[in-house]
Every structure is written in structure tokens, then in C-alpha cells.
């Protein structure tokens, strides 16, 4: 686990919570986006918790750099914010963040979210996703590389992911096994060059594959 925030008090508070957990280890702390990238390369943590707005290099740039580095493909970035749903959060998701947390989150919810992110799952509730997309998605749609290469089943799977369904829910909706549902999602992510499910959701809406009014 990597913690990056320009406020030492915030970092120490989160670290104190995480140090109580036997299965979570904080390997490093940083003050800005530049340190986030350097420390991520040095430690390759499962989760990097990065403040979205920092002097000396913000969380969006750090997220994008981490997402672009093949050596850091296993690092799941979670954005920290004071402000909740704003354009910075949306751009961080576009850059490759797995989700975001508001700093006034309850301690037990924070620890749970870290574990969810470590498993590679997106921290995006459907209602929050719809609000972000409705406010900040680009109109008209932006064509996504690889969209034409999706099969009909992969397109269906992406649309369902964009509506917040899990793999088991996809399987039930599409009348297939959960393993097949996961395969459709993973293949779509590869074709669309999506780092994770959160980025897949953004691509689905920005490309016009799914429209906000449909959600």
C-alpha cells in the first residue's frame, strides 16, 4: 500500500488505520504526484492511494503515468478527494484510477475499500457513476480505439458493466456462466485498452456505446 498526500496529518491518520490490519502493509508515503510515481516504481504496491489535488504534481498526472507503465500494471490507483463528485475525479478515472474515496469516509469503509481495490475491483457505485458521467462525459461521443472490434456479446457485457453489474449479475442477465462473463469483460478491456472496470465504464459512455439517459 502506498499513501500519497501533501498533508502529513491525513497520511498519518490513514496509516494508523491501516497499521491495525494484519493483511495490509503501508510500504511508503509521498507528498506529491512526482513522488507517487517514483515510489510506485520502487515498491510496486497493490494499491496506491493518491490525493487528486497536490502542489508539485497532482494525482491525475500521477495516475496517468502509473497506468501507462507496463511494469506497474498491477498497481490499482485509488484517488482521494475532499470534494466528492467533481471534474478532477472524472479525469482521474479516465486516466486509469480504479475509483475514488472522499476523505471523510468512515474508518471501516476505508479499510474495506482498500481491500476491494487490492482485488482489482472498481470503487464505483452505479449511482455515483451516473452522476459523474452525466456531468462530465464528452458530447458528442468520442470514438474509442477497438470499439469496432468488440463482438456483440462483448458489447453487451460492457454496457452491463457500465450500468454497475458485477460478473455474476452479468452472467445471470446474459444466461452464461460467471467465468464466460468475466472472459467477455476481460477481452473487451483488452480491445479497448481499459486498465480496469472503472476505465471501461468511462469508455463505454464517452464512446456512445452507452448513453447517460439509458442509465
TrEMBL record:
Annotated ranges, domain Response regulatory: 1-118
Domain HTH luxR-type: 143-208
Pfam families from the UniProt entry: GerE, Response_reg
GO molecular function annotation: DNA binding
Modified residues (4-aspartylphosphate): 51
Gene3D superfamilies with a match to the protein in the record: 3.40.50.2300
GO terms, biological process: phosphorelay signal transduction system; regulation of DNA-templated transcription
Name under which the protein is recorded: DNA-binding NarL/FixJ family response regulator
Taxonomic lineage from the root: Bacteria, Bacillati, Actinomycetota, Actinomycetes, Micromonosporales
Amino acid at each position: 500500500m502506498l499513501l500519497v498526500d501533501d498533508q502529513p496529518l491525513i497520511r498519518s491518520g490513514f496509516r494508523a488505520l491501516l497499521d491495525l490490519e494484519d493483511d495490509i502493509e503501508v510500504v511508503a508515503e509521498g507528498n506529491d504526484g512526482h513522488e507517487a510515481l517514483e515510489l510506485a516504481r520502487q515498491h510496486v504496491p497493490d494499491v496506491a492511494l493518491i490525493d487528486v489535488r497536490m502542489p508539485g504534481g497532482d494525482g491525475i498526472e500521477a495516475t496517468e503515468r502509473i497506468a501507462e507503465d507496463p511494469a506497474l500494471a498491477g498497481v490499482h490507483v485509488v484517488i482521494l478527494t475532499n470534494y466528492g463528485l467533481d471534474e478532477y475525479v472524472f479525469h482521474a478515472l479516465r486516466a486509469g484510477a480504479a475509483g475514488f474515496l472522499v476523505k471523510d469516509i468512515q474508518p471501516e469503509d476505508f479499510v474495506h475499500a482498500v481491500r476491494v481495490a487490492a482485488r482489482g475491483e472498481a470503487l464505483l457505485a452505479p449511482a455515483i457513476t451516473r452522476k459523474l458521467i452525466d456531468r462530465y462525459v464528452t458530447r458528442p461521443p468520442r470514438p474509442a480505439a477497438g470499439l469496432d472490434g468488440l463482438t456483440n456479446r462483448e458489447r453487451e457485457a460492457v454496457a452491463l458493466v457500465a450500468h454497475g453489474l458485477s460478473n455474476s449479475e452479468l452472467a445471470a442477465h446474459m444466461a452464461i456462466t460467471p467465468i464466460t462473463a468475466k472472459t467477455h469483460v476481460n477481452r473487451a478491456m483488452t480491445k479497448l485498452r481499459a486498465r480496469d472496470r472503472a476505465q471501461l465504464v468511462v469508455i463505454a459512455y464517452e464512446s456512445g456505446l452507452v448513453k447517460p439517459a439509458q442509465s
